[in-house]
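Q: What structure does this chain adopt?
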Amino acid sequence: MRRLATALLLLAGTCWIGAAFASAQTTPTATLASEQQMKLFYQQGIARVKGGWVLSGTNAIARVDDKFRPEVTVNPAIPTEWRVKGYNHVGDIDVVGDYVYAPWEQADYTKGEQVTARYLVKNLKFVDATIVAQHENSFVTVDPKTKILYSFDNFGGDAFFRYDLREGFAPLPPLAMSAFVDKVQGADVRGGAIWLSTTDPNNGLYRVDLKTGVVDALGSAGHPGGEGEGIDATPLPSGRLHTLTVDAAGAPIWLGHFRVTG
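A:
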């Protein structure tokens, strides 16, 4: 009996150590692989397209090739009829199918009214704009499988606002998160998760499980004192995550490429 009890204790200890090791191994962590300097013009958003990227500035959208040479640029990106209503800021964009989805903001957040617009990917021609009942609109991201668009009501939050694009922007029940994430400036749906970039004191990066809402902190986009902006989560040889961060000095813009382990 004594030998059996000892064996069971050893087995239990081994299982506990194995479980702890597995838990540590599955905690996701973002590690900088490389980064490059970008022009200040492209300081808001980033989305991958075949052969290049779509980038957004404060009131501009551009499609560039893999060497970041401009192919199409729209400046100003917000049409006059919307600018006169106070809309003067484009946030972190997303690209799904034929469209670029772009969040627009007007500065009076008490109105509880912002806009999400669409542009054609091929020529960045403005298509339409939809008013959404949000106080702020710093990012939009679209699940390419479900055609559900995600955003936040404010810069920080513990739930995603969701809209069904197949039903004309019909609101859906929010996706609750396991933790509050503050000052979110960018997001991208990929691989069963929403990846977030923030402009909190650490320019934090996060992963939110699409099914459970569980939030994992991944680390920092770097350049503390600067401002974290857009994010893209397309797996590329350069990395798993691609983030825009404004340097603490105000320039340049850093495009960081991150590997994600766990």
